[in-house]
Design goal:
Elements: H1 2-11, H2 21-41, E1 56-57, H3 58-62, H4 68-71, H5 81-102, H6 104-129, E2 133-134, H7 137-150, E3 155-158, E4 162-165, H8 166-183, H9 186-194, H10 197-225
Length: 226
């Protein structure tokens, strides 16, 4: 799989691809501010819900609103201004760190694979249940899983007080994925599963090798105790 990813990355060398994460973050922040401004200026009139025209609603896409296949990527996933600001900063930090480590082309491949998987999952949900929608939350969470795989010992200040390593935050992140897969509706389950596709493609071999190595070490310790 890594050979295929490397070949795809080399194919993109002929294109001048800039880092995209800062544009995604600024666009998401702009949508949040614009929607907030529209709420404030239409307090006594009918409010136009901008975000409702940007979400990945498969029914609307099939009716011709094809722009939703792109705009869902910059739909804000927080309602509170403070949490939105923290989320944007976090996405920017994680995304730009991955772009610096991988390069803009490889990061683009990772992000696009996750986006396409989520779109496919939304359409599959629509085919199964008659409705389907996509959310970008788990796609952006997958960026942190990739970050934690590359920088497992990077420390973050949880609640600005408690130091915690990225690998433990990634474990919490995986629990959040698991809860969505087990307890969520069809569309939410598929979105969570689809957002792990890029992780498996990029890190699946490493995860497999690490698992084998841990298993063999466990076997040797068991034999030694015997």
């Amino acid at each position: 799989m890594k050979k295929w990813l490397n070949a795809l990355e080399r194919h993109l060398y002929k294109y001048n691809i800039p880092p995209i994460m800062k544009y995604l973050v600024f666009a998401m922040g702009g949508v949040f501010v614009l929607d907030l401004f529209m709420v404030m200026t239409t307090a006594y009139t009918t409010h136009i819900n901008l975000i409702s025209y940007m979400t990945l609603d498969v029914t609307m896409v099939l009716q011709g609103q094809v722009w939703r296949l792109l705009t869902w990527l910059i739909v804000p996933n927080q309602d509170n201004m403070l949490w939105m600001a923290l989320s944007l900063y976090f996405y920017y930090f994680i995304g730009t760190a991955l772009e610096s480590r991988w390069g803009a082309r490889r990061f683009l491949i990772f992000f696009v694979i996750g986006a396409i998987a989520n779109i496919a999952a939304a359409f599959l949900s629509h085919a199964i249940t008659g409705y389907g929608y996509g959310v970008n939350t788990y796609l952006y969470f997958s960026l942190f899983l990739a970050f934690a795989a590359l920088y497992p010992d990077m420390q973050f200040m949880l609640f600005f007080v408690l130091p915690i390593k990225a690998k433990w935050l990634a474990a919490v992140d995986l629990v959040y994925f698991l809860m969505a897969i087990v307890m969520g509706g069809v569309s939410l389950r598929m979105a969570a599963i689809a957002s792990l596709v890029n992780i498996l493609l990029f890190f699946g071999e490493d995860i497999w090798q690490t698992g084998r190595r841990m298993y063999f070490q466990w076997q040797r310790r068991r034999q030694f105790r015997r």
